[in-house]
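WARN retry 2 of 3 for item q-0093 after timeout on previous attempt; input resubmitted unchanged.
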Amino acid sequence: MTVFIIRRLVVSVITLLAATFLVYVGTAISGDPLQDLYGIADQNEAEQQQAERRRILQLDTPIPLRYLDWLGGLLRGDLGQNIRGQDVSALLGSAMAATLKMVVVATVLAIVLGITVGVISALRQYSGFDYSLTFAAFLFFSLPIFWVAVMLKQFAALEFNNWLREPTIPLPVILGVASVSALAWTATLGGDRQRRLTTLVLGFALTALLLLLLSTTRWFADPGLGPLAVVLLAAGAAVGVTFVVAGFRYRRPLLAALVAAATGCVFYLFSEPVLAAPSFWVMLLLAVVAVGVSAGIGAALGGLQRRQAVAASVLSGVATGSLIILDYFLRAYEGYARKVRDRPVSTVGSETPNFAGNFWEVGLDSFGHLLLPTMALLLVSFAVYTRYTRASMLEVMNQDYVRTARAKGLIESTVVTKHAFRNALIPVTTLMAFDFGAVIGGAVITETIFGWQGMGFMFITGLNEVDPAPVMAFFLVAGGSIVVFNMLVDIAYAYLDPRIRVS
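OK item q-0093 returned
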């Protein structure tokens, strides 16, 4: 493996060098970087600015020599200056921070949700849920990203912000959402005709009652969960994760998950002094403590099912902690909304200029700016991961070793998670590598529509101004990340499937 990695690194470096030369030359000959200075009326000022730009961009030097000079600066850690004399290294740092803030959240969510839903769709092949999901995946995949972004700005931001001033839900909307929810629950749960009819009626009634309650109490004007909702949702999460991880054949994993959820709820009742105005490091410490305590509960109560109990209790503890954090964010919403003039969903930029607030209000501000770009990127990527995972799982579930695992008497959850899912991840892992490598380079269209000053914005600006330094900085990050992630995928292959070895 070491020899393989070294060989790949050498080949990758040579490939990147050749690619950087082509990109540098292509950018340098794509136009005239002095074009915007020709219209200056004052001749002396125009000549001075042109001379300064020639000096910065080394326009009097042949392009190959300019490339070698840029390459020498790169080896010294200097990415040069842009057309305005600004340090490209500093610009790259701020651009990468903005881009990673946007695309990493969307990509991680797309991977987690897409793989999860794809697995469920494969296990319920040709069911109503599978058909509905297939239709939705093809629909999302076919939507142009620029159209999705514009529609989100109009309806998920502008119209939604206007609605929040008087957050009552009209009766036709309640009936429409309840109908869609009832159909979704019916497709998800399936069953015979009687069960489908019962699910349809209950889903419609419960959704309609919930929306009517939220509208009547004006919950959206001052949202929050409260202790009762946190306890009920934490208990439901404990039962859900236990069913996924270990099933209900044994009681100890369920007991451990419920105890972990109860421990988190007890902390929630006395958490005000700690969580009223925390810092990032306090939240990180609490997360580590929550995982450690949950793992200890699972180990203590697990008995012969200790491994499943630890997994169930840790996931239950994480879910309970997430509910507590969500409640504190919701409680901070009213104060935050006043500071942003009741426009919590932003359409431009990555943060509100000169915004000042506590930990929860700053988090809400970041969420409000992240929401629309994340949704735009998530819809398309989610469809891709769902389809790939479904196809891979269907292929793996028909293999001999899966039938053998079932014949040995293993429970279905163990067959799926331990035998089928691990091998089904191999083709999906390849997709992850290309996806991560591509999005780190910046979502150019999404950044442009939502006004994010990220990697894509820097790349487009460099091209328009015939400025090689920012373009090369973009290419180094994008190309380097693709090389690194593809190498990580090759290493992950051997872990996911022991039959795969690098000779």
